[in-house]
Amino acid sequence: MLACLHPSLNAREPIMCGRFNIIDDKGMQALLQELGFDFNFPTRLNIAPTEPVPVVVLDGQSLAMHEMRWWLTPSWAPEVSTRFSMFNARSETLDTSKAFRGPFRHHRGIMPASSFIEWRRLGDGKQPYLIRPVEGVFTFAAIWDQWEKSDSYIESCAMITTEAVPAMSWLHHRMPVMLPVSDVAEWLDPTTSKGRLLALMAQGLPAELEAVPISTAVNNGRNKAPECVQEEGDPVTITRH
Length: 241
What we know:
This protein is mainly beta. It has a single domain, classed as SOS response associated peptidase-like (hypothetical protein yedk fold, Alpha-Beta Complex), CATH 3.90.1680.10. The chain is built from four helices and 13 strands. Strands 3, 4, 5, 6, 9, 10 and 11 form a seven-stranded mixed β-sheet that branches. Strands 2-1-7-8-12-13 form a six-stranded antiparallel β-sheet, with no helix packed on it. The longest helix is centred in the first third of the chain and has 9 residues, at about 25-35. The termini are far apart.
């Protein structure tokens, strides 16, 4: 069984690139069909690190959907731990970090998402924003690994982040690496060169986005109610260029 939400993540202090949503709508259904899956996801709100998340991987010659713990545990780790923050992986250190190097070379995946949440500093507080594509859904670049000890086996993952494009820098200095669906096959292909992988991650935004302020109810990672995505202002358009 995958681990539940770590107690420290229940705090009111938000974390970078650390929440996202999956909505069972036409956009998500279309993505799953395009990837060759004949099922739909249930709607899940305010997904937080250490929770189980769906990850698309290449299994032989076919795509497969695996449920993984969203907090990377390297295969060589002595135990499953949240001592170090491992739900994000910086694109700049993927090929040099001991924890990320192997998964980057051999275990790449994508995390389907309808939207993600980021917090903007405002005076003494932070305002949460929901970021979503104007059309369609996200496919976040990810890495994953397998951990096994005695009778325990866990597949876990990390969302890859990169420096925010100028159009998003007002919100945060980092953002998830977002791939267009047309690049998914190349990203997952084990024969894709490191140079090409780095180029795929450096493309910026795959589509026009919008950011809308939402309720601070989302700050609590254990809150999964619809109030978490209650809009409290007008959306701000984030252009690709």
